[in-house]
Amino acid sequence: MIVIGAGIVGLCSALALQARGARVRLFDPLGFGQGCSYGNAGLINADAHLPVAMPGMPSQVPRWLLASDSPLSVRPADALRELPFLWRWLAASRMAAAWRSILALRALHSNVLAHYRTLLGNDYHRHIIEAGGLTLLPGEKPTPAERRATQIRKRLGIAAEMVDRAGLDALVPGLSPSLQRALFFPGHAHCHDPAALCAALGARVLAQGGRLEKVQVVGITSTAGGCLVVTDAGPSEAAAAVIAAGIGSRHLLRELRARIPLAAERGYHLQLEAPSVALPMGVIHRAGGFALTPIAGGLRLAGTIEIAAPDAPPKWSRADLILARARALLPALRFSSATRWMGARPSLPDSVAAIGPVPGHRHIFAAVGHGHDGMIGAPASGQLIAEMLTGGAPHIPPAPYRLDRFGVRDSFCGPALEDQGDARGLACAGSEG
Prior knowledge:
About 30% of the residues lie in helices and about 25% in strands. By secondary structure, the chain is α/β, with parallel strands linked by helices. The longest helix is centred in the last third of the chain and has 17 residues.
């Protein structure tokens, strides 16, 4: 069996398949976790459930597009090509559609820490820090969007504690006086180093008889008894294949005529070395549209949304914007050096990954489109893929993640919620829960 992509989703898929007796070959030109898995914020928020598109977002978009310091940017050269994605993105902000996404994300994410315990075994606490997570809130009173979010959390049974200014000073000393409130999520965690986590999972794949082949996949097609995967080193036959190559999956799915509106939602990070501020947990700055995570001896600032071609030149002013907002948030912040990074998140309009068989190709599956939540959704996605491929009973209902859902009207819906308010926190690098 071939898994295309050795990022966090491909690795979790490979391990889940191996646990069910499959022999696995991983195809990736870069190696373990060197794409978006390398540069993400490292948040592993088990209670993350809010899609990017929420009610109130359409009214905010014009202002975001016109402001130079907005958390959302669409490159003019790419706007026309990405119009189908953007249109569906706006449609996904309606409450009925958003509720479907909320339920799907909750099912995919809620047991993530248990999944990682199984995948990592005795190495779990070396990579995962269960310290909770903090979401900073603007102003002194709840916004309409916050009231809606509180209503959703109550329906889903998600625990969150309101923290006042005194509590903030105890948890994160040195925050700007403008911050007066936050939500603490005890069920959240973060990764000590996303690249090291992927390397550890990759080592487990190899130890269990798997192979990593550093090749570029250029094509894939079905055969009578399986599939043919074409790489720059030649073709390989397999009984089945899983496409989990992030934004690189887009051309393969198009070749298979799968109509999936997968877009490159580019994000930026800065890694600050020897920071003067030590954070005990991951922090999401909702109004600023970014996250701060203590990672491998430094501090990672990650976020923003830039809709653009994956290979377009980086717009480093987006990273500089994050740093300026971090300095305003933590006035005493100092550091010895900083490195910048940009990656193209593979995103779908409803923020819900596409997981399952590619329509018309019974031996080719996909696990793509995790957007901001790849580190959170990967373990359950890999398990679901393995269950589908080996004929096991799925541990969560697969219907919300099917690849053909964008062209099919379905009835997977929940109770209506009040449709009001704004959509702050658009570009946070990981949902706040």
